Amino acid sequence: MYRNETISTRSHAQFHQVEGLYVDEGVSFADLKQTLLYFAQEMFGATKIRLRPSFFPFTEPSAEMDIWLGTDTEKNYRLTKGTGWLEILGCGMVDPQVLTNCGINPEEYSGFAFGMGIERQALRLYEIGDIRLLFENDVRFLRQFTAAL
Asked: What domains can you pick out in the chain, each with its CATH number?
């Protein structure tokens, strides 16, 4: 994907996204929050998340999810711009019109969706301080991800 964005240590104009969608009877925002909290705990060992209101065209309500990293290290301070919070993904409840367009009765079913750039996940998982390193093709940097043969 591509977006017209200023390239920085945390953001890039190119990105790859993974999306999730869950639709069933009685799905609520609380189900979304619990699913994302579990993901954040398992993926990052996060102890706190926060959901900030946002806008996405296919979900309502929509939110951005941040995980708490703190500011105890220089790397976390830089990565979070001094706030301690790192944005990880966008999410929300599937707009009923989207369900209708897919032939699903929104009176019976509801759902949630989320999407995350895999580069942002890699930054945290591998403790990479600058997203631009993922796009520069520097062999010295890339060698650390070589699998043993």
From this structure: 20-134 (3.30.930.10)
Helix (H) or strand (E) holding 49: strand 49-56
- For 140, residues 6+ apart whose C-beta sits below 8 A from its C-beta are none
Question: Alpha-carbon distance 42 to 14, whole Å?
Answer: 26
Q: Which residues contact 103 (CB under 8 A, 6 or more apart)?
A: none
Confirm if 102 and 110 have CB atoms less than 8 A apart: no
Cα separation, 77 vs 70, in Å, equals 7
Q: What is the largest CA-CA distance in the chain?
A: 55
**pLDDT 10s digits, 91-126:** 999 999 999 999 999 999 999 999 998 887 887 778
Alpha-carbon gap, residue 26 to 37, rounded angstroms: 19
Question: What single DSSP character describes residue 105?
Answer: -
Residue with the two structure tokens 């209708």: 100
pTM exceeds cut of 0.85: no
Picking from 87, 26, 25, 23, the residue whose alpha carbon sits closest to that of residue 59 is: 23
